[in-house]
Write a structure and sequence with these properties.
- The chain is about 30% helix and about 20% strand.
- The protein contains 13 helices and 18 strands.
- Helix 5 crosses helix 10.
C-alpha cells in the first residue's frame, strides 16, 4: 500500500460541502493531492474543526469549480436541494461524492486495482466487512470503507492486485460518474429514505446505479429473497442470483451454504457471527464475490468461520443467568428488525426512536414471540398503539 501523489489533482478546483465523516477527510485528501479546495459546512461548530482548510461558502460568488463534492447526507434534489447543489446545477458543475474521487485517484495513479461495491437496504455493512475478511484470509490485499468504516478518500493507494471493497449507500450511488465496479452486489430492497428519493421507484433506481458502466466479464450479484430485488435481477443481463433460503446460483438451504454447481458446501452453524437466513444471504453474496475476485474455496470457508461480526448487528454482548443479551441497534427499519426477530423464538424487545416508512406493522407476525416490550424515545406511544 502507498499514498497518492501530492500533485495528483494539481490545477483542479473543488468545493467540498459538508465536513462530517466523509466530507472532512475528502477535503483534506484533495488538498494533500494538490487540489485547490474550498470547504464549507453550514454548522459553525463543525467548521471550527476544519483547521488548515480554506473555509468559504461556495455559493457566495462565482461557482467556478471542477466539481462539487457534496456529503452523502446533504440533499442535491429531494426533499429540498442544498443551495450549493442548486448553484452547481446552474453552472453545469458535476455533483459527486468521495467514492467517485477515490476511483479517479486510483486510476490517475495508474493502478488497476479492482473495485467491489455492495449496496442494499439491509446487510450491506456485514457483507462488506465479511467480503474484506474473506479476501484477507485469501492473502489478497484489500482496503474496505466508504459508507462503512473509513471514508473513501482515507483509504490507501492499492497496487494492481489489490481490491477496494466499498459499502455504497443510495445517496452515494446517485453521485457516481465514472466508477465501474468489477464486482457489484445489490442485496435487497425495502422502503427506506423515501424522502430523499421521492418514492420506491426512485429509491430502487438509485440502488440500480451500482451496476452502471459494468462490462462483459464483470460480476453482478442480486438477492432474490424480496420481490423488488427479484424483479431487478430479471431486468439485467448475466446476474448471479443469491438467496438465504431457496435454490439460486449461490444460496442457503437447511443450514448449508452452497453454489448451484455443487462445488462449494459450508455448514452455516460454523459461522457463529452470521445467524439467520438474512445473514446466509449476506454470506452467499460475499462468497460469490470473493470467488470472482480470486479467493479459493478453502479461504472462503475459513473466512466465513472466523468472521467476528460487526458491533450493533445481532452482537452478543452478555450471557447472564441463561439469558443472552443482543445488541441489534443498527436495525433502524422494520425489515432489518424482522430479520433479527426471525432468529429467536422468544425475546424481550427494546425499541423506540423515530418511526420510518411503514412503522412497525410489518413486524406483526413476530409480535407473539415478544415476552415483554420496552418502548422508548419520541415515537414510543405510536409503537405501543
Amino acid at each position: 500500500m502507498s499514498t497518492f501523489a501530492a500533485d495528483l489533482f494539481a490545477g483542479k478546483r473543488f468545493a467540498v460541502v459538508g465536513l462530517g465523516k466523509n466530507g472532512l477527510p475528502a477535503a483534506r485528501a484533495l488538498a494533500a493531492m494538490g487540489a485547490e479546495v474550498t470547504a464549507w459546512d453550514d454548522s459553525e461548530t463543525v467548521r471550527e474543526g476544519a483547521d488548515g482548510l480554506t473555509l468559504r461558502d461556495p455559493t457566495e460568488g462565482a461557482f467556478d469549480f471542477d466539481a462539487l463534492v457534496l456529503s452523502p447526507g446533504i440533499p442535491h434534489a429531494l426533499p429540498k436541494p442544498h443551495p450549493a447543489a442548486v448553484q452547481a446545477r446552474g453552472a453545469g458543475v458535476p455533483i459527486i461524492c468521495d467514492v467517485e474521487l477515490l476511483y479517479q485517484a486510483v486510476r490517475l495513479s495508474g493502478s488497476r486495482a479492482r473495485f467491489a461495491g455492495i449496496t442494499g437496504t439491509n446487510g450491506k455493512s456485514t457483507t462488506t466487512a465479511l467480503l474484506a475478511h474473506i479476501l484477507g484470509e485469501a492473502g489478497i490485499l484489500v482496503a474496505a470503507g466508504a459508507n462503512l468504516g473509513p471514508a473513501a478518500l482515507s483509504l490507501p493507494l492499492l497496487p494492481h492486485d489489490g481490491v477496494y471493497v466499498l459499502e455504497t449507500s443510495s445517496y452515494m450511488l446517485e453521485r457516481l460518474a465514472a466508477v465501474r465496479f468489477d464486482a457489484a452486489a445489490m442485496l435487497n430492497l425495502s422502503p427506506d429514505h423515501l424522502d430523499r428519493h421521492g418514492d420506491m421507484s426512485g429509491y430502487a433506481a438509485a440502488k440500480r446505479h451500482i451496476f452502471d458502466r459494468q462490462r462483459a466479464g464483470d460480476l453482478a450479484v442480486i438477492g432474490v429473497d424480496d420481490p423488488l430485488s427479484r424483479g431487478m435481477s430479471k431486468s439485467l443481463p448475466n446476474v448471479l442470483q443469491i438467496s438465504g433460503h431457496q435454490p439460486a446460483d449461490f444460496f442457503g438451504l437447511e443450514g448449508i451454504l452452497a453454489d448451484r454447481r455443487g462445488d462449494f458446501r459450508f455448514e452455516m452453524r460454523r459461522a457463529v457471527a452470521l445467524p439467520g437466513a438474512h445473514n446466509t444471504q449476506n454470506a452467499a453474496a460475499a462468497a460469490a464475490m470473493a470467488r470472482f475476485l480470486g479467493a479459493p474455496d478453502p479461504a472462503i470457508a475459513r473466512g466465513l468461520e472466523t468472521f467476528p461480526g460487526l458491533p450493533h448487528r445481532q452482537q452478543r454482548v452478555a450471557h447472564i443467568d441463561g439469558i443472552v443479551f443482543i445488541n441489534d441497534s443498527k436495525a433502524t427499519n422494520a425489515d432489518s428488525a424482522a430479520r433479527a426477530m426471525a432468529c429467536h423464538e422468544r425475546f424481550v424487545w427494546i425499541a423506540g426512536g423515530m418511526q420510518k416508512e411503514g412503522g412497525i406493522l410489518p413486524l406483526a407476525e413476530y409480535f407473539p414471540r415478544i415476552a415483554h416490550a420496552l418502548l422508548i424515545g419520541r415515537d414510543a406511544p405510536d409503537f405501543a398503539a
